[in-house]
């Protein structure tokens, strides 16, 4: 085996790989790991019911997905970006710079964020945003004064809560869930306890106070989880007193080990989230590159199929998995069939 | 000095004379005891190692073996013409228009009929749609594919073997208990009662599931359908890239370094760096791969080709080091003899040294490949994790270039999913991966045993 021959064959393989990327006949999707399960359920059903190949779905996070989405137009770029938050101005601009000007925004439904703990752990069954703030903020209100958080047990600040050590597993900062958690729970608690007012009185500007409100204590009672919900679940399993933040869909698949807490007296269910009663929820989106419609076979069919009543409707497979279906689904369907781009209309 | 030591020296022979060949003196006893102790430490160390190995294997096998069996429902389904072909003309386009959602009620009805026809069966479920929770979401697709392939059979009753839902499957495998069902909205206790009775009637069976080994991955709401087959193909193509690239490059580099290169500072530097590269954490190669192959060279993300290239970088030092070791093990007399009868240096190497070193090189390569097969960290960064491997590649080019997963990435992906049924599949995947690794290592051992020559 002369290595000249081997080197030649190596070069040949390299050459073959360089001439790659021929015409693409499948839809490519990337983005949020929260949307991934839904997108893969739809992709699977799409492959079964249409003559188009099953779309390729990848995760990687909302921001990473949108970044790839905005790389430009062409067969070697993705067609759809999934996101657990709305696209930002900055990203729209980056898209436009790369030639991706016509984007169709599709809201597929809502995702609820729930607080859950070990099934036979202490009785964490009812929370107010103020409780979470009191437990997790670095500075809280005690007797009308803003002081370093002295609380070590839930019962320290709310006698209705169990006499258990404070220990919370919250999503890390790279997660879209963290943003919702901060905005809808911590900030709400900050205002409710009067801490925000006290900060402003203490000389902070309103913006500074808002930022300061979102901070969490760093003495180990609040643990950032950078992995996914399975990791949070494992931590809860190991800590009787632990409280974890989960997506509703994840909780609904693990009801046999977790019990959920109400927030402001509302139990998180698909119904209470759809009606807006349950406060901690966020919309989920995907974004279509309009320039690819008609070029990539099946792209529009996939999008229409995604938001069709039998898939995204109240009794469809997505809602069975834990997605809270959008009450305004009919408008979304219309938007997808007309391919109404962002900024035109509405 | 000599004065001081003399009296002591005079004492020693006295003591020595006391010792006998038949009795042991204190110092010997001490030394023997020390040796015993050391042996005990060694045995204890081995014992701890074996203990953990057994625990590991037992837990892997216990958690993973259930993944190889699956619960099936065998049921005759009436292919209702009114639903499937309302126009009655068997036009393929018309048939296609009925989606899997149209087929689902047929299955519900079929199981419901089966339940009612089975004698001695009592259930509180009184509606056909209640049967839905027992059936996998994959079942309507099986029916639809069958009908599209055999449009003549519309209106007939056909026997189907469909997957049971993952909760039913979990109940058969004791993963789902009645206590947990009380809190689970996916299935009710009434369903479990029915499952018990249908098992007795022979409608529900737990059988070996080839689809787990050969099948494609599935979405989150049908773990019962998921298989590792596509990821296995992805791994195969990656290993192909690794083998084709790293073996010639590695062997060429080590032959040059070992046989031809002058020994100077520069080659010393290269040698040190190769050893260093072998110790670099694999995630570093992942970042390198992301930067060079994907961001700079614009190769497709998640493609086995890129995965293979990254793993090649990781495997090369291993192969170079083992190849050099086996080249070094060939005695210089072989080279000298070849050169002595007039062979050129290259002839000496390729005709005599390399064949003798080949078993060692192959062993090193196989072990390097096995290492690459089990590697996950670099694949995280080039997008092979977080991808749902549902499509089989079409042909060789697509096998290299289309996005795919690999076995360890698939296991990681499964372990992250919400449904507990995927956890079991992750362990099952680990068993398959371990079998592959063991096979490769056994091949390496056999090669070494059979062909290795000692001097």
From TrEMBL, chain A:
Keywords associated with the record: Signal
Domain of life according to the entry: Bacteria
Keyword Transmembrane attached: no
InterPro entries membership: PBP_domain (IPR024370), Phosphate_ABC_transporter (IPR050811)
Endpoints of the signal sequence: 1-20
Chain ranges of the PBP domain: 17-310
Cited Pfam families: PBP_like_2
Descriptive protein name: Phosphonate ABC transporter substrate-binding protein
Taxonomic source organism: Marinibacterium profundimaris
TrEMBL record, chain B:
Any one biological process term the GO annotation gives: phosphate ion transmembrane transport
Cell membrane as UniProt keyword: yes
Pfam families in UniProt: BPD_transp_1, DUF3333
Signal peptide limits: none
SUPFAM superfamilies referenced in this protein's UniProt entry, alphabetically: MetI-like (SSF161098)
Highest rank taxon of the organism: Bacteria
Alphabetically ordered keywords of this record: Cell membrane, Membrane, Transmembrane, Transmembrane helix, Transport
Region called Disordered, residue ranges: 1-28
GO function terms (MF aspect): phosphate transmembrane transporter activity
Membrane topology, record value: Multi-pass membrane protein
Gene Ontology cellular component annotations, sorted alphabetically: plasma membrane
Occurrences of domain ABC transmembrane type-1 (ranges): 232-444
Protein's UniProt keywords contain DNA damage: no
Transmembrane regions: 38-61, 228-257, 277-299, 305-327, 348-370, 426-447
Compartments, as annotated in UniProt: Cell inner membrane; Cell membrane
Family listed: Belongs to the binding-protein-dependent transport system permease family. CysTW subfamily.
Protein name: Phosphate transport system permease protein PstA
Taxonomic lineage of the native organism: Bacteria, Pseudomonadati, Pseudomonadota, Alphaproteobacteria, Rhodobacterales
């Amino acid at each position: 085996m002369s290595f000249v021959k081997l080197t030649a064959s190596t070069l040949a393989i390299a050459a073959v790989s360089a001439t790659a990327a021929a015409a693409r006949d499948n839809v490519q999707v990337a983005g949020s790991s929260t949307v991934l399960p839904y997108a893969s359920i739809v992709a699977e059903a799409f492959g079964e019911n249409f003559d188009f190949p099953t779309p390729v779905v990848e995760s990687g996070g909302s921001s990473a997905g949108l970044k790839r989405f905005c790389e430009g137009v062409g067969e070697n770029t993705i067609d759809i970006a999934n996101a657990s938050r709305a696209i930002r101005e900055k990203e729209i601009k980056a898209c436009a710079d790369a030639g991706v000007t016509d984007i169709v925004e599709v809201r597929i439904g809502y995702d609820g964020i729930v607080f859950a703990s070990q099934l036979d752990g202490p009785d964490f069954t009812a929370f107010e945003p103020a409780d979470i703030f009191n437990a997790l903020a670095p500075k809280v209100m005690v007797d009308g004064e803003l002081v370093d958080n002295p609380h070590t047990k839930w019962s320290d600040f709310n006698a209705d809560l169990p006499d258990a050590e404070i220990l919370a597993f919250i999503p890390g900062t790279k997660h879209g869930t963290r943003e919702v958690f901060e905005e809808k729970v911590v900030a709400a608690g900050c205002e409710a306890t009067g801490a925000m007012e006290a900060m402003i009185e203490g000389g902070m500007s309103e913006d500074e106070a808002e930022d300061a409100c979102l901070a969490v204590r760093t003495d180990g009672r609040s643990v950032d989880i950078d992995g996914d919900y399975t990791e949070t679940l494992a931590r809860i399993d190991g800590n009787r007193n632990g409280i974890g933040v989960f997506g509703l869909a994840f909780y609904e698949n693990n009801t046999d080990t977790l019990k959920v807490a109400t927030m402001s007296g509302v139990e998180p269910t698909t119904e209470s989230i759809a009606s807006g009663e349950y406060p901690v929820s966020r919309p989920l989106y995907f974004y279509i590159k309009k320039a690819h419609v008609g070029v990539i076979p099946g792209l529009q069919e996939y999008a229409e199929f995604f938001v069709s009543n039998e898939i995204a409707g109240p009794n469809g497979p997505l809602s069975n998995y834990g997605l809270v279906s959008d009450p305004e689904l009919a408008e979304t369907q219309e938007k997808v069939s007309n391919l109404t781009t962002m900024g035109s209309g509405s | 000095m000599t004065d001081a030591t003399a009296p002591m020296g005079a004492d020693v022979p006295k003591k020595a004379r006391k010792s006998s060949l038949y009795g042991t003196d204190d110092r010997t006893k001490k030394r023997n005891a020390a040796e015993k102790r050391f042996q005990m430490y060694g045995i204890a160390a081995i014992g701890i190692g074996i203990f953990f190995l057994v625990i590991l294997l037992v837990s892997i096998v216990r958690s993973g073996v259930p993944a190889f069996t699956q619960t099936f429902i065998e049921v005759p389904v009436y292919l209702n013409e009114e639903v499937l072909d309302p126009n009655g003309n068997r036009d393929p386009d018309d048939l296609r228009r009925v989606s899997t959602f149209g087929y689902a009620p047929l299955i519900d009805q079929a199981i419901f009929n089966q339940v009612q026809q089975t004698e001695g069966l009592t259930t509180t479920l009184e509606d056909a749609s209640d049967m839905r929770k027992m059936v996998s979401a994959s079942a309507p697709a099986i029916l639809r594919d069958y009908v599209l392939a055999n449009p003549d059979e519309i209106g007939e009753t056909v026997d189907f073997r469909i997957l049971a839902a993952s909760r039913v499957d979990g109940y058969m495998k004791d993963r789902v208990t009645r206590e947990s069902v009380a809190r689970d909205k996916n299935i009710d206790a009434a369903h479990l009662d029915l499952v018990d009775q249908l098992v007795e009637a022979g409608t529900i069976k737990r059988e070996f599931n080839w689809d787990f080994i050969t099948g494609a991955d599935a979405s989150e709401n049908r773990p019962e359908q998921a298989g590792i087959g596509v990821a296995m193909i992805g791994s195969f193509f990656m290993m192909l890239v690794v083998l084709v690239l790293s073996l010639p490059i590695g062997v060429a580099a080590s032959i040059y370094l070992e046989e031809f290169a002058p020994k100077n500072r520069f080659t010393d530097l290269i040698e040190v760096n190769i050893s260093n590269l072998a110790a670099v954490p694999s995630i570093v190669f992942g970042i390198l791969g992301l930067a060079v192959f994907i961001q700079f060279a614009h190769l497709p993300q998640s493609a086995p080709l890129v995965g293979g290239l990254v793993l090649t970088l990781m495997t090369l030092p291993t192969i170079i080091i083992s190849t050099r070791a086996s080249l070094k093990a060939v005695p210089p007399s072989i080279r000298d003899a070849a050169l002595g009868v007039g062979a050129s240096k290259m002839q000496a190497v390729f005709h005599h040294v390399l064949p003798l070193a080949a078993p060692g090189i192959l062993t090193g390569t196989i072990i390097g490949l096995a290492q690459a097969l089990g590697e996950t960290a670099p694949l995280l960064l080039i997008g092979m994790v977080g991808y749902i491997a549902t499509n089989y590649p079409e042909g060789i080019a697509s096998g290299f270039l289309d996005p795919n997963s690999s076995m360890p990435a698939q296991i990681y992906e499964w372990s992250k999913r919400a449904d507990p049924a995927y956890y079991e599949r992750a362990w099952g995947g680990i068993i398959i991966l371990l079998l592959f690794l063991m096979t490769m290592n056994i091949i390496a051992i056999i090669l070494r045993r059979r062909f290795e020559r000692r001097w």
